[in-house]
Amino acid sequence: MKQWMKPGRLVAVAAGLVVMALIVKAVWFSPPAPPQVTSAAVERGDLEVSVLATGTINAYKLVSVGARATGEVKRLAVALGDKVKEGQLIAEIDALTQQNALRDAQASLRSAEALLGARQATLVQAELAAKRQRELAAGDAGARADLEAAEATLNTARADVESQRAMVAQARINVDTAQLNLGYARVLAPMDGTVVAIVTEQGQTVNAAQTAPTIIKLARLDTMTIKARISEADVPRVKPGMPVHFSLLGEPDRRIQATLRAVEPGDTTLADSSATTSTSSSTSGTTNAIYYNGIFDVPNPDGTLRINMTAQATIVLAQAKAALTIPVAALGAREGSSGDRHKVRVLGADGRIEDRVVRVGLNNRVRAQVLDGLKEGERVVTAEAAPPGAASDGRRPPPRM
């Protein structure tokens, strides 16, 4: 015990205790390590705010070419995929019935014209008889009754001629109608186009008594029309004249440019007969999504676009070329009342973080346009995390012994 009481020993013990205290203080009460951050560079590029829509490609004009004559299709003059010109023969229908009807109408016309000639001859005879009776009456050589009878016969003959002329006109109309019906036996193309479907094959019998049966479907494929379904949440922002680009499922990397022509005023279910049913179901608690068709046209000179293809369309609401942009994750709280200023954290070259207020423009929810406050090449903090193992009060845990 006396050895521990020596002054040299006490000094050594005190010095050791001081060193240990300094070590514990340095470890336990050291300032927290700088936070670990994820940053992104301020880059220049094109930015656009857009609305996505899925559409169906249709022919600019699609016509069902039908038959207005009843009978057997004796000849089909086109094949699937043929390109035809307006007035070109599509099909011929057995026209024997129409030919007989034309012959009958022509015969009726000749009969009516012959009867008209007879009535006209009778009229001439009545006119001569009436003239003689007038001359006799003028010389007091004829009876008054004979003159009156001659005048009555003349008036009757004139009426018969007028009546027969009307019958001749009616017979001519019947001939024209029969010729027209005979012409219906030859189905002609109503426009230039491509045969996209053959509905009635050669040898089939068609009946045009009630509705015109379709022979083929003819379409103009040099220009295609796309109807893109736009949700009711996005449609207030969409206006005709906005640029559109779309891609096909088979060519997702190819971007085809177009311009929005119109937005249909009614939703896509308006022309559907079951629209009333869907409306009633929505009022009973079932929520149905509402879409409106945005319409745009695109040239198709090489025939790549086909009917009923799916188009993944993007309607561009606004765009900026070669703009300074940053990730939206870098935007902090809003500053000021204008709503276009945000706080961001800028990571300096020395690792220090600086708070800065920037003014932003377009924002597509992925990247935002920077109008003021940052320069190209600077880095902004997008995420920040405390170093692993840091205590919640800013102190490091004691080292394990």
Question: How many alpha or pi helices?
Answer: 4
Q: Helix coverage percent of residues? A: 25-40%
Distance, first to last CA: 30 Å
What composes the largest sheet? 6 strands, antiparallel, barrel
- Going across the biggest sheet, name each strand in turn: 2-9-12-11-10-13
Task: Explain the overall architecture.
This protein is of the alpha+beta class and 401 residues long. Among the domains are: 36-47 and 319-385, conserved putative lor/sdh protein from methanococcus maripaludis s2 fold; 51-59 and 226-317, Elongation Factor Tu (Ef-tu), domain 3 (Beta Barrel); 95-182. 28% of the residues lie in helices and 37% in strands. The protein contains four helices and 17 strands. The protein has helices at residues 7-28, 96-138, 144-183, 275-283, and strands spanning 36-41, 43-66, 71-76, 83-84, 89-93, 186-188, 193-198, 205-206, 214-231, 243-248, 256-267, 291-299, 310-327, 341-347, 353-363, 367-372, 379-385. The strands form two sheets. It has a six-stranded antiparallel β-barrel. A four-stranded antiparallel β-sheet has the order 6-5-3-8, with no helix packed on it. β15 and β16 (367-372) form a beta hairpin. α2 (96-138) packs antiparallel against α3 (144-183). The model is unreliable at 275-286 and 391-401 (pLDDT under 50).
